[in-house]
Amino acid sequence: MPFIESFEPVIGTDPKVLILGSIPGIASLQAQQYYAHPRNAFWPIMAELFDVEWSVEYEIRIQQVKKLPVVLWDTLRACHREGSLDSAITKDRLEANDIIGLLKEQPGIRLIAFNGAASEKYFKQTVAKLLTDDQQVDQIRLPSTSPAHASKNIQQKYEDWKVIIRYLD
Prior knowledge:
The chain is an alpha/beta fold. 28% of the residues lie in helices and 19% in strands.
């Protein structure tokens, strides 16, 4: 079973919201890009939320994110997984990213927005119990932007994702 590792965080300007995926899928790992699958709704949703261009080169998208009050990262730093589905992640070697350290470095973060149920699940298993009282921030599970989660269309997902705007004031 392949051992996979996530990417470094993309830290925006004075971040208020931490957006956590679970761990990159195959398309993202191959491209070395967050949310690289062409049918993943993440970049179109970000474009709507923040009025940024998403159909540009990845490096430009990342530069745009760095100007926003958000952080992009994943709950897991590493794990064993066959394929791209979160359901294929094995429990034998889950390693969380240093989210505690990030919250210390970025004390303005007011919301952790989970991109799907798996991100939240692994956060609760690996990170939540380590949070101190002063690191407690609001948490919300948003519908996964992955094309594997097609119970909602992109517009419905966008409507749910709009909640993060409230935390940016």
